[in-house]
Specification:
By secondary structure, the protein is mostly helical. It is built from 20 helices and two strands.
Length: 484
Amino acid sequence: MSTQHSGGSRAYLVSIVLVAVLGGLLFGYDTAVISGAEKGLQAFFMGAEDFTYTDFWHGFTSSSALIGCIIGSALSGVLASRLGRKRSLIFAGIMFFLSAWGSMCPETMVLPEGKPNLTLLIVFNIYRVIGGIGVGLASAVCPMYIGEIAPSNIRGMLVSWNQFAIIFGQLVVYFVNFFILGDHVAPAIASIGNGMNEILNGAEAAWAIESGWRYMFGSEMVPAGLFAILICFVPETPRYLAMVGQDDKAERILARINGADKAKEILNDIKNTVTEKRERLMTYGFLCIFVGVMLSVFQQAVGINAVLYYAPRIYEAMGFDNPMMLTVFNGIVNLGFTCVAIFTVEKLGRKPLLIVGSLGMAIGAIGVAITFNNPSLQLLCMVSIMIYSASFMFSWGPICWVLIAEVFPNTIRGAAVAIAVAFQWIFNWIVSTSFVPLSNSMGYWFTYGLYGVICVLAAVFVWKLVPETKGKTLEDMSRLWKKE
């Protein structure tokens, strides 16, 4: 469809958004690639002679990317404000590519190839942190970019596609890892006490230990390179261009998306809210920042990563013989229910989806707490997990990103989004690292009961404090918070 004088070009908008959501796909790809590679990686470094690769080292190595995620999200506000949204995403793409290459070949033509040692482990983790910086940056800037480029009447739907891309990226890497492993055997690692491990089928799993994990990490170079190249061809957001005084460019982009007449109206509205390039973070009050931060906190505190990261462990503990098959099925369900949000967010609004999703998660979590250790209720327990996960996917999964992208006024959006997303990664780390010790010490009934209570609190928080942003322009946010 060509650009039209009155209505703009929907094809142009869709092409921009499709490139931007590749950042979300890389977000999902990078965070999930470790699931297939971690056993081979563990077995490889267990062969080191200058140090003992303990369970602690493996736990740190498996989650080191989260350190980068916190750093990247914290820096996103500064980078998005100073470099712009587009150049920040280009930087994120470069970080993804460097991390994929370096994680595949951490020897970097300097260290002895294929010789595990402590130095190599440190270098590998540095590359994983670099990838995490890309994830943290993309997690903040991708929804911000889409939110600022999209017309208000379909903004929620388009930002929701970012969450779809994240879940799709996770599914893609599950299949990529499966095909890379092929007929080879993943190494079986057994704990022998005091944080020590041994390989039970080392001879049969030699290829997976030496090469398999490298190809899994290296596979990310394909989507990362594609993203870094394609993002160079999308425009900067009109909101950012107006903030730096490039009104002509901003109007041209707005005209291609919305039509010439509407573009002038939108640009005037933008300029009325960006008379100052930068305002103090608290210009619009404490509640504005508090709502954005707590949206991020609740998105993680409801405990979803206890399912996304540990699904095979949970299904195995339930007594199922095929935990990986159930995990893949759960992933397909997640993808389907993310589509529910995409196609209803502009009709039903943000708040109703969040409230219904919170209550659905509460029912699912409490169902798991009640049925977990009862063999006769095994199927009901599995269904409860599915309800819990699916409820997140049509509510807190995508809608949180939609609200974070649009709830803050233009002049503080970069800094405010950075703070909110940093809190999201911090609580991601807290939930991810606390689930296993919490469930082992207090039991699944307590752990999922706690998540159920938090889900109810999340529903109350949304009902009482979160404004409905459906149909509002980003410029309306300045007026909304100044009235509070």
